[in-house]
Design goal:
By secondary structure, the chain is mainly beta. 5% of the residues lie in helices and 29% in strands. Strands 1-2-3-4 form a 4-stranded antiparallel β-sheet, with no helix packed on it. It starts with 22 loop residues before the first strand and ends in a 5-residue tail after the last strand. The mean pLDDT is 81.
């Protein structure tokens, strides 16, 4: 049985770069939950199913970021720990 890959010391499961896309996950917003937040459009979509389209390449981001599509068609970039 293969173990899920994790960032060292984080304890958070991560999608491996060999993962085949698209795949379905649940988006959970983990930041400032307020209508005044710059990411309020994401906060309102927390706990929704998303389709993960791809992982951004290291040249595009220094963090583990994924491009996702919400069921209403909105595209967004989210951190790995926001996908369950």
């Amino acid at each position: 049985m293969r173990r899920a890959w994790t960032w060292p010391g984080s304890g958070e499961p991560s999608l491996h770069h060999y993962t085949r896309y698209p795949l379905t996950r649940v988006f959970i917003y983990r930041c400032w939950e307020s209508p005044h937040s710059a990411d309020a459009h994401l906060w309102r979509r927390t706990k929704q199913r998303v389709t993960v389209l791809r992982q951004l390449k290291p040249a595009e981001s220094d963090f583990e970021i994924y491009e996702v599509a919400f069921q209403d068609g909105i595209l967004a970039h989210v951190f790995a720990d926001e996908l369950a």
